[in-house]
Specification:
Layout (H helix, E strand, L loop, with lengths): L1 H26 L12 H11 L5 H6 L14 H9 L5 E5 L4 E4 L10 E9 L9 E12 L2 E7 L2 H25 L7 H6 L1
Antiparallel strand pairs: 1-2, 2-3, 3-4, 4-5
Length: 192
């Protein structure tokens, strides 16, 4: 019994050593000096422009993979959709589910006809295929006798266009607000 346990321990140690030994192959790849500038400030600038470098979030919790949930107020498509539909009462606005559903809306003088709009977010990017807009029309002969139809018409295209236009404006404002050019520190300037 003792021999079996010692063999398992020995086998585990051998597998562990081989695993550690194989980590060194591709873990460290030295850079090519011909491709990198010799000045450290230029290397830092180049790495920042290419999006390289150490990020504290990656070291602490690891990089998040899969879906990218942001705050609703920072998502331009979400904000634009709520702004475009601000005249309609909302039944559901679920950011994590990516859906906005309005309640039935009718103009004051016409209670027999109403519309309902559903917006599904398929991506956070501002593209024509990033949202799916559905417009439902309800026509009632009596209170209990109503027909509901989903239609792809002018209103659907107009709402989609307005949302994308407003989201593009929000995105540009966000970029202009957050733009900070790379500046060398005063210590770097004193060294020169």
């Amino acid at each position: 019994m003792l021999k079996i346990i010692s063999n398992k321990i020995l086998l585990t140690c051998i597998v562990f050593l081989f695993t550690l030994n194989s980590c060194g192959k591709d873990f460290f790849k030295p850079g090519d000096a011909r491709e990198n500038p010799p000045d450290p400030r230029e290397r830092v600038k180049k790495n920042l422009e290419e999006g390289r470098g150490f990020r504290l979030n990656d070291a602490i919790g690891g990089a998040r993979k899969g879906t990218n949930f942001e705050f609703a107020s920072s998502n331009e498509l979400w904000r634009a959709s709520l702004d475009i539909l601000d005249f309609m009462p909302l039944t559901s606005a679920n950011y994590s589910g990516g859906v906005i559903i309005t309640d039935w809306y009718s103009e004051q003088g016409n209670a027999d006809e109403a519309i309902k709009i559903t917006i599904r977010f398929l991506s956070n990017e501002i593209r024509s295929d990033a949202i799916s807009v559905d417009v439902f029309y309800k026509k009632c002969v009596t209170i209990n006798n109503c027909k509901i139809n989903k239609q792809d018409g002018k209103l659907k295209k107009e709402i989609t266009k307005q949302i994308l236009t407003k989201a593009t404006i929000y995105q540009k404002q966000k970029k202009d607000k957050n733009f900070k050019p790379y500046r060398q520190s005063t210590q770097d300037n004193e060294r020169e």
